[in-house]
Amino acid sequence: MKRVEGKVAIVTGGASGLGLAACHRLAEEGAQVVMADIAEEQGAAAAAAIDGAEFARLNVSDEQNWQALIDSVVAEFGRLDVLVNCAGIVQLASIEHTTEEIWRKVNAVGTDGTFYGCKHAVRVMKPAGSGSIINMCSTASIQGGPNIFAYAASKSAIRGMTKSVACLSTQEKYGIRCNSVHPGNMETPMLRNMYNIVAENDPASAAIMDSLWVGEPVDVANMILFLASDESKSVNGAEMVVDNTTTITEGAVPKPD
């Protein structure tokens, strides 16, 4: 039997990056995956290439969108077992240069989107007495960073949300697990875009980035798969770091030879 055979999962940000990698692994291991994203054309094309997956348009910053999507998934499949809140954006700016527009845009997708997802997943998982919510955080919520102020703040909020949902579920005996995943640098479109911006404005910093360890999206997808599966039935409210010791090593973790 496959590791998530028969489970129904929603993955936000499913059209690319870590979300897409998670969709592939969950589907490979038997889940029915709903790939939710605002990028319709890209998401539909990606879903068409994955057996056991379908695409659904979702604006994660709109609560009514969330309610409609989750209700439609339950109506179609009879259940929701897994929610992966993976949608997120980053804009490079220190607190000195973070405008209200940047702050609200980053937090609308990351913070608000995760809040709405958790809220409505709990609503439909609670009657079933089971479920796994997996929130994408980042090592930015552990270390911070001078030029990712809004992003680090959003990920830190998601870290707190995760633990609060987990505690509620345990104390009220809802049977829902809620965990966060904290990747370091991963080879994704988001990281490549950040690199291009840095290279254009600060070549010296880009050269340093060239020498750092970068993981693969499947590394994070495998952690998501574990948390979605019954193998992690006693893991609740945990911070699962996927960073090859980056947050605990003195100095930088070098790129492998």
Automatic annotation (TrEMBL):
The entry's keywords: Oxidoreductase
Any one Pfam family match given in the protein's UniProt record, by short name: adh_short_C2
Transmembrane residue ranges: none
Keyword presence, Oxidoreductase: yes
Domain Ketoreductase stretches: 7-171
PANTHER family: 3-OXOACYL-(ACYL-CARRIER-PROTEIN) REDUCTASE (AFU_ORTHOLOGUE AFUA_6G11210), SHORT-CHAIN DEHYDROGENASE_REDUCTASE FAMILY PROTEIN
Record family assignment: Belongs to the short-chain dehydrogenases/reductases (SDR) family.
Record's protein name: SDR family oxidoreductase
